[in-house]
Amino acid sequence: MFANHFKMTGHPFLENPPAEWLLNDDRFDRGLARLRFFQEQGGLALIVGQTGVGKSSLLRLFRERMPQNRYRHVCLHLTSVTPTAFLRTIVAGIGEAPKLGKDRLFGQIVDRIGKSETVTVLIIDEAHLVPSQSLTDLRLLISFGTDGAGGLPLKILLCGQESISYTLKRSAHADLVNRICVRYWLPPLTASQTEAYVDHRLRCAGASEKLFEPEAKNLIHDYSGGIPRQINNVATACLINAALRNTDKIDEDIVNETMAEFRLP
How far, rounded to the nearest angstrom, does the alpha carbon of residue 98 sit from its chain's CA centroid? Predict the structure, then answer.
């Protein structure tokens, strides 16, 4: 195992690392600033980005900083289901046993959230997979939450890949789009951010940032396009290759050799 070879305390490029391993870069700072506004004053927000760019990490930071005495978050990840099943998932998420029929499901959601002493923040990950009818149902729910004084204490955060933007351009979703108060596109890492990301993860695992030479980090950025998930994959493959070669440094040659085998699309 490369961790033993490099005397690491753990795997530096885990897909789901401990919370303290998350590097709060400029991209996340901008995203969190917008999400704080949404938390305090908005009703509907949209976060968009490529697969693996760090959307789930941004949501994780947002959830962990949310005051638990004022807000309750409900996260939905299984979104590619029928509209009725989607509503059942929401009902189960707020702690109710789903009833039969969409009208009863709507009633359960409105009744349970309406009686809550905290604001419910419904976080929908993989929102690009949500069926069109379910988006309409969400618009109906959010209309309860923005109906002036005494409205339903509900906020909805949609988070998905870029294809959701094309779905929302349909005229059927114009009313939903008009209710979005916060929109943020999470970009890939720049070359300098990639270097900082790799260094940070290495330090978290008890290794020196000098393990990867600067030229190697630049190549990893070029191969990965600055996508953190791909950076994790490439860097891990390089560590395995370097351990097999019994070397204590990762240079350009190791990165190029690794990528020749890796065949990153």
Answer: 27
